[in-house]
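Researcher: Batch entry, complex prediction.
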Amino acid sequence: MPVFLNTRDADFEAGFQALLNAKREDAPDVDDTVAGIISEVRRRGDEAVIELTEKFDRLSLTPETIAFSEAEIDELCARVPAAEAAALELAAERIRAYHVRQMPDDAMWTDPDGATLGWRWTPVSAAGLYVPGGLASYPSSVLMNAVPAQVAGVERLVIACPTPGGEANPLVLYAARLAGVETVYRIGGAQAVAALAYGTQTIAPVDKITGPGNAFVAAAKRRVFGKVGIDMIAGPSEILVIADADNDPDFLALDLLSQAEHDASAQSILITTDAAFGAAVARAVDTRLQTLERAGIAGDSWRDNGAVITVQSLDEAAELSDRIAPEHLELCVENPEALSERIRHAGAIFLGQWTPEAIGDYIGGPNHVLPTARSARFSSGLSVLDFLKRTTLARMTPDALRTIGPAAETLAKSESLQAHGLSVRARLDKLNR
Amino acid sequence: MPVFLNTRDADFEAGFQALLNAKREDAPDVDDTVAGIISEVRRRGDEAVIELTEKFDRLSLTPETIAFSEAEIDELCARVPAAEAAALELAAERIRAYHVRQMPDDAMWTDPDGATLGWRWTPVSAAGLYVPGGLASYPSSVLMNAVPAQVAGVERLVIACPTPGGEANPLVLYAARLAGVETVYRIGGAQAVAALAYGTQTIAPVDKITGPGNAFVAAAKRRVFGKVGIDMIAGPSEILVIADADNDPDFLALDLLSQAEHDASAQSILITTDAAFGAAVARAVDTRLQTLERAGIAGDSWRDNGAVITVQSLDEAAELSDRIAPEHLELCVENPEALSERIRHAGAIFLGQWTPEAIGDYIGGPNHVLPTARSARFSSGLSVLDFLKRTTLARMTPDALRTIGPAAETLAKSESLQAHGLSVRARLDKLNR
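Model: Structure tokens for the complex:
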């Protein structure tokens, strides 16, 4: 049974706090292991990567076979059924169309003091995308990571994807081609992250590493952060559905289950203005759980982390939602746009009953890599900005320097940074000569 | 003596690589200490913060005196000399004018398939700015951190600034007021970072922590990352000056020294097309070092980390610059705009001989919190974006779902995520009924 809460009840706040504070993931502490792996890869390069791949993925590689060859990729791509290929192409096209709009503008202007100021965006030169192997090897995630990088203009785009026992997912390779990925390395784990960050004899280092992974990958990303850029460290997936009674309970049950089926640690929450409707959705979840393929995982998630919260008003719903700061937020109410304007913290919002969250996972266009674990309070989903950086620009004329230079000199002196002040003063003196 | 290199020499590449790889900072490993401090603060709140402040800052606080009172701030602000106050006001105004232009636009559009898509930016609710105490307590950094937060619309803006022995810098308080800071806590170190991230009885937790600090502060920021957002972990400051022979050697000497005087680990590099001019700048540095207040620090930095590199062309200079990915880049050449367009990786560019880097530190307008240690390859200086996050929006109509829904269903099936597919299928079935 999920938790049932009602804001009318005296113990609501305690129950809601418990829900917020529940630690859903007990990530094993793998930091020492990961530190060892990284230092081995830095020291011995390919040799270490090959040894570790043999050990963890039961796969024998040589420097020549660390990357898939073009012929291998051709062969794997040819195995992708036409319907899947077409679906990936439509997804890539729609994700591209959305992300192209995110490209920020450069700017340059001259202010009233005569200072010319501005900024310019440039792409990172090389990015490495981590793609998990096995069951969690999602071609949709390849598109969600690689397309923004491609749109940003990243020159060299590579993937590291382990192939345990040598098994590769043809759709992953197909998605990689669609998104302009140059090379796919069949390596994974902390060793792949280390190889991407520091480089080996056959793997040139990248500047930015993104993509999901297990505890080893997450710990490795944390460790190489600073040497390279990384995206967020994602936790278990979450959905919050805010719904009035005018909805099909089965639709919402499926939406809740589509997070729950990811992982027993995933969390699905329904907030509704109608307690009876909440109960109907919970019944619909139970019904669907009787036949769902991943009923074990989804059932565990719903029972351990699920919640149905009854509120007195949509205002109250918006307030609770901001405290949860959900990764995915569905607004199944009469006027979802109006409600969405009252929401401040959410990764992605899905408006109205015809927008199931799964549309956003695959084909809607917005990115599905989103902030989890309440981090939507301070961070955003993946975007082209993750593959760009901004250089600021400034040019003073002699007049501009005369106008604003003395204040810089004053502040430099107040901070006891004499050379700073002198670098301005020497120029002013020459101008005044 | 700094290193002198010439791209003409056979051993240039080895020398340049050594310069790139030189580890300039030997940050002590304080991670265990910091982990202990954070757990104490989480467990005992104010009590731990007060004990640690007594221990590290020789200052006795009570829950009532952890924050400066309004009267104390009034009194400190009244001590700021008029010239400094005016300089801070001009700086705040110019920084604000620059950062206002960074505010990104929201977007919402309907695509040919009938899907309405977009995004909306919202500020983080609460931000905490760390301001070092003692010598490195820079009012300019208060403005550079707080003004972008204020422009972004952060509701609650607080500062943590240690006051060793109780000594506060009036200009820091004045700058805080100018930038709309609500509360200034007189605490520092890892205990301040922990208190901001997790909250105590008297300190409400924030969502984002920015600002420079020593090794303890940096380690604490790394540790609380995920619970809250953080800005970059800054290393020692750097400047690269690219200059032709048509410059005043003394100007450039002062610009190089204005980084060198920050810290013995700072790095100042001159790249010039004229070896004789390079030698003249080096002589000018030596001359200035004879009288500079911080000659010890600046001299150590210049001797240990400084470099003068002679190149055959500005193209070569741009290439080397991108490999260095400097925090600050001055282009003192005839056509600095043209050269700037060949640069891909730099935190901030200063164009022409009348734009000393110190202008950017204080008064230019662009932010002075910039990526160090080659991280300009993948990251940007501080901006309003650091205090905003983006929520993506999507709304399908029944027709849009009919058009793109089937592809989502196909991809969900290919990833063995049945509920994802069913959440689309159930809706399509109802629409087709």
